Amino acid sequence: MAAKPSTTTTAKATYSPIDPTRKTRPPIFSGSDVDWLRPDSRGFHQCRPAFFRTGAVNSASGSAYAEFGNTKVIVSVFGPRESKKAMMYSNIGRLNCNVSYTTFATPIRGQGSDHKDFSSMLHKALEGAIILETFPKTTVDVFALVLESGG
């Protein structure tokens, strides 16, 4: 009579997204917080209506017009183009960003005075996306004009 080989089963640990031993975090917002409306009468989970159109400025290398609710912006990109002769030679291209407001962009005149901060933020956001090493001795200019600032 032949002996049967013994079979032992070992339990393998598997990942389960629902772990009964794990404590759950309390929700960030309670049920009553979700019911409030924003000043522009949007609900808690609603996004602002958005509209985009490319090719807004014919003379630019690239441009776009964007609306987010009551905020309206035109962005134009010029370049890469050869840097001015007065600039020193550089193996890395140069990125210039400028954010400006129209005089009628905000309800109170002079409210758009923090354009230097926004120009710096735009520069920081784009410098990682534009590979300036591939454009030696060139300049890329990005101009954003805020037509209406709706928050």
TrEMBL record:
Q: Which UniProt keywords apply?
A: Cytoplasm, Exosome, Nucleus, RNA-binding, rRNA processing
Domain Exoribonuclease phosphorolytic intervals? 46-151
Q: Which SUPFAM superfamilies match?
A: Ribosomal protein S5 domain 2-like
The species this protein was found in: Citrus sinensis (Sweet orange)
One GO cellular component term, please give it: nucleolus
Question: Any idea where this protein resides?
Answer: Cytoplasm; Nucleus
**The protein, known as:** Exoribonuclease phosphorolytic domain-containing protein
Segments for region (Disordered): 1-24
Cited Gene3D superfamilies = GHMP Kinase, N-terminal domain
In alphabetical order, the GO MF annotations are:
RNA binding
Which portions of the chain have biased composition (kind: Low complexity)? 1-17
What protein family is recorded? Belongs to the RNase PH family.
Q: Where mainly located? A: cytoplasm
Question: What GO biological process terms does the UniProt entry carry, in alphabetical order?
Answer: nuclear mRNA surveillance; poly(A)-dependent snoRNA 3'-end processing; rRNA catabolic process; rRNA processing; U4 snRNA 3'-end processing
